[in-house]
Design goal:
With 409 residues, this protein is of the alpha+beta class. Helices cover 46% and strands 14% of the residues. The strands form five sheets. The protein has a four-stranded mixed sheet with strand order 7-11-12-13. Strands 8-9-10 form a three-stranded antiparallel sheet. The protein has a two-stranded antiparallel ribbon with strand order 1-2.
Length: 409
């Protein structure tokens, strides 16, 4: 429970004289922790403002970084150890809460972990006393303020207009996401601006310790939405070819699945290997085997576990792609009919469903827009009928030059 001391504490291992493991307060870090709680609980500051104050003061993180990530500050403000009660079992796992519109930065299309982590009911926590840095009253005041901040942020999101490419746009330079941002009053210069801009997260200096990490350009939301929608419409003009291409890929995936791995069997093998690791560690700790025998056996188990986990990940990736293809095949006729018969009257929500079904992501580069479809929009090459599909084949890119497309200006 205590092995990983949070910021502000230092972990002391169990001593040979029987003294149990415990925390001791690191005074410089503890002063920073106390200031964070006071800023939020007493001055009602946001986490963003806390991060800015830490940067202005030159306060370093536990790993020595000069800037703080908001999620790190949020984790500190939510940790009950600071009021004197370290807790085990604060989180629990469950099935994925949300379907991802696209993979996060530098992440695989299929998550390695097939579950989401959520906060458990505090009544289920296992608590142990530790030295307190702040009072219990201040801790609860901060929790109320964080809840109020989340409520306001949720209201702002709910009131924000839905964008056609929301969640799909990504920077081709730094790989961070683009997000929609309204034109500020200062930038509007007194004029009415009904449009917004897609802006790269990497260009926001406040997110990265006061220095932007990307200089990519922002793009008008209305023009980029129109540009991508035109590409999707052109793709749907030939539903028979699309259906044939999807079915061909689905057939290849089904053949690969027959020759692939049984995920259930692999999960059982992984469980047995994990138990084997635990038994081996216990044997070494009890002195049954020596270090010379322990290390090679442990390395063999680790290597086998890595192989099993890679096979499980590949099996899940094939399953995810297969489900994706089933979904699109079943809705191709609906999509095509909506485009051909109701193109002028189709609403934004229906447009978005169509785009999510066909577009994997939209990459925004400095001199071009790349629309990555979930299926190759070009006719398949004759030689590809007997070849295995690859990620590159499933993510064929269609380029839309800014200079030649007014919609990307």
């Amino acid at each position: 429970m205590l092995s990983g001391a949070p910021y502000g504490y230092r972990y002391i291992r169990r001593q040979l004289d029987g003294t149990p493991a415990h925390y001791v307060i690191e005074l410089p870090q503890a002063a920073t922790v106390k200031a964070m709680f006071q800023w939020v609980g007493l001055e009602r500051l946001s986490i963003g403002e806390v991060v800015r104050r830490l940067a202005e003061a030159g306060t370093e993180t536990a790993s020595g970084k000069p800037f703080w990530d908001r999620s790190v500050v949020w984790g500190i403000l939510r940790n009950p150890a600071y009021m004197g009660r370290a807790a085990f079992g604060k989180t629990q796992v469950r099935d994925h809460l949300h379907v991802r519109v696209r993979a996060q930065r530098h992440s695989a299309d299929v998550p390695r972990k097939p579950y989401s982590t959520i906060r458990a009911d505090p009544q289920q926590w296992i608590e142990i006393p530790v030295p307190a840095i702040i009072s219990e009253a201040l801790f609860h005041t901060v929790q109320e303020q964080l809840a109020e901040n989340r409520k306001r942020a949720r209201q702002r999101r709910d009131n924000a207009p839905l964008r056609l490419l929301q969640g799909l746009t990504v920077c081709g330079q730094c790989r961070y996401a683009y997000y929609a941002k309204k034109v500020s009053k200062a930038a509007a210069k007194g004029h009415q601006r009904d449009y917004a801009y897609y802006r790269c997260v990497g260009t926001d200096a406040y997110r990265f310790g006061g220095e932007r990490i990307c200089d990519n350009l922002q793009v008008r939301t209305d023009k980029l939405d129109d540009l991508v929608w035109q590409q999707v419409v052109e793709l749907l003009r030939q539903p028979d070819r699309l259906r044939g291409e999807y079915e061909r890929r689905l057939d290849v995936l089904e053949r690969n699945e027959k020759n692939g791995f049984d995920t259930t069997s692999l999960d059982k093998q992984r469980l047995q290997l994990e138990k084997g690791k635990s038994r081996l560690i216990d044997s070494y700790a009890d002195g049954i085997i020596d270090k010379a025998d322990f290390e090679p056996k442990m390395q063999q188990l680790k290597n086998r576990l890595e192989q099993i986990e890679q096979q499980i990940l590949e099996s899940r990736r094939h399953g995810a792609v297969q489900s994706e293809l089933f979904l699109v095949i079943n809705r191709l006729e609906e999509f095509a009919t909506a485009v051909t018969e109701r193109l002028d009257t189709i609403d934004l929500e229906t447009k978005r469903k169509i785009v999510l079904g066909l577009v994997k992501r939209v990459e925004i580069h400095k001199d071009e827009i790349v629309v990555v479809f979930r299926v190759d929009p070009q006719p398949p090459a004759p030689s590809s009928e007997n070849s295995n599909d690859s990620d590159e084949g499933l993510e064929n890119m269609q380029h839309c030059k800014r200079r030649s497309q007014s919609g990307a200006g």
